[in-house]
Amino acid sequence: MVNAHETIGSSLEDLLDGTGEREEVYEEAIKRVIAWQLEAARKAAGLSKSDVAGKLGTSRSQLERILDPTNPAVSLAVLDRAARAVGKRLKVEIVDP
What we know:
Layout: H1 12-19, H2 22-44, H3 49-56, H4 60-67, H5 76-85
Helix pairs in contact: 2-5, 3-4
């Protein structure tokens, strides 16, 4: 019988390293979290997507691309502007792996 705290096989990180997908998966995960936080902040502030797009000086379709969790190609400057548009600020931190 296997103890509930014992692991069998490799970790998820090992698997992703082995398939060469780790960076891609991590990038998308980070973007998903940021998109979720922006959407939650937008709703908490009582702003529509059109309101936020207007504050950013862009279209609603462009805002949808910014919030798309599968699109990691959004600059930090754009994410910072989006955060400020919903009354927040972007915080980027470097931590130990």
